[in-house]
Write a structure and sequence with these properties.
The protein is mainly α. The chain has 17 helices and no strands. Helix 5 runs parallel beside helix 9. Bound molecules: protoporphyrin IX containing FE (HEM).
Length: 311
């Protein structure tokens, strides 16, 4: 056995680690003797991962649709992971903040540029057939997408702009939740009745969402930014990273998504033009109607007025 100073040091550290939790180091070392050496497939969990693609139809392009959504959910998880690092960093500086934000933006840039996998990578006829088996489900029901929004900005920026005046810091989370911009995709404001899509989504996630909203109320990305010293808030790289993120999530990705939806649902000449989730989607999805902006303070009044208009 190599027994040099480094090994001695390691053994002492190991001893220290196990003593501190009242465990015998020898037992741990003996466990190590019998433990299986790691393999790629055990570590990456490839068997589990590659068994999650279950088609509902016999159409081969449905596989593209399922897998690309799964890739999106994995990337959403990576985004939330980085957001948590920003949110829970005490004494955050502009370098760390910018670097983590750039990671997040790279992930979203990748989701935006790769959206052509949806737009160009499936036969329209196949898509228009297998989508019938997905109704009434919709990407609208992606919980991680909503968690990203809640982690990005103050709740007021996610409230349907028609109701913003009715909400202030004394409003309950519950009331605010009912007026989030995305309720418009699933609520008939005349009857007040929620669609099945929205009802099911809320049954599954509303509690978790309310907890997350409360958790991120003072540590979302915008809050972390305005808690920085004033000079740091003027850091050009950081401001650029914040604006880039806002634009990518709320205009560029949204437009790729909307144009893809139009290609299939509207321009294919197949079907009745209705979305699987049943929303008034052409209007609902456009950034100039939705006006979802995470960091409005970082845009000029001209940029705000023209949000999503130029595309
Ligand atoms: C052919 C591909 C796609 C089409 C035609 C499409 C269509 C739509 C439509 C029409 C809506 C409006 C809600 C409704 O269903 O009534 C929607 C919402 C949504 N979809 Fe997709 N989608 C596609 C791919 C994706 C992908 C790959 C993702 C990634 C997870 C995704 C995530 C979302 C999200 C997060 C929403 C809610 C957006 C919001 O509230 O502003 N979609 N989609």
């Amino acid at each position: 056995m190599i027994n040099n100073e480094h090994t001695d040091h390691l053994l002492k550290e190991i001893e220290h680690k196990y003593q501190s939790i009242n465990q015998k180091t020898e037992t741990q070392l003996e466990g190590l003797l019998w433990s299986k050496p790691i393999t790629y497939w055990d570590y990456i969990q490839t068997d589990a991962l590659l068994n999650l693609q279950i088609q509902r139809t016999t159409l081969p392009d449905e596989m593209v649709f399922i897998m690309y959504h799964q890739v999106n959910e994995l990337i959403f998880k990576m985004i939330l992971w980085e957001m948590k690092q920003i949110s829970y960093c005490e004494q955050i500086d502009t370098v760390f903040f910018t670097e983590r934000l750039m990671r997040i933006s790279r992930y979203f840039d990748m989701l935006t540029s790769s959206f052509s996998i949806m737009a160009d990578g499936m036969e329209v006829e196949q898509y228009m057939k297998f989508r019938n088996t997905l109704t009434p489900a919709s990407g609208f029901q992606s919980a991680q997408y909503r968690l990203i929004e809640f982690s990005s900005t103050d709740l007021i920026n996610l409230i349907d702009h028609r109701y913003r005046d009715t909400i202030d810091s004394n409003t309950s989370y519950e009331f605010a939740f009912e007026h989030l911009y995305w309720q418009a995709a699933g609520v008939d404001y005349g009857s007040g009745k929620k669609s099945y899509l929205l009802d099911e989504f809320e049954k599954k996630y509303k509690k978790a969402f309310l907890n997350h909203i409360e958790e991120y109320n003072t540590i979302n990305i915008w809050q972390k930014f305005i808690q920085l010293p004033v000079n740091d808030q003027r850091n050009p790289e950081l401001v650029q990273a914040m604006r880039h993120y806002d634009r990518t999530v709320n205009i560029t990705w949204v437009m790729q998504h909307l144009n893809t939806a139009k290609k299939y649902i509207d321009h294919s000449g197949i079907g009745d033009g209705a979305a699987t989730g049943g929303s008034d989607w052409k209007k609902y999805m456009h950034p100039k109607f939705q006006r979802r902006i995470f960091f409005p303070e970082l845009w000029s009044s001209h940029e705000l007025e023209n949000w999503g208009v130029e595309i």
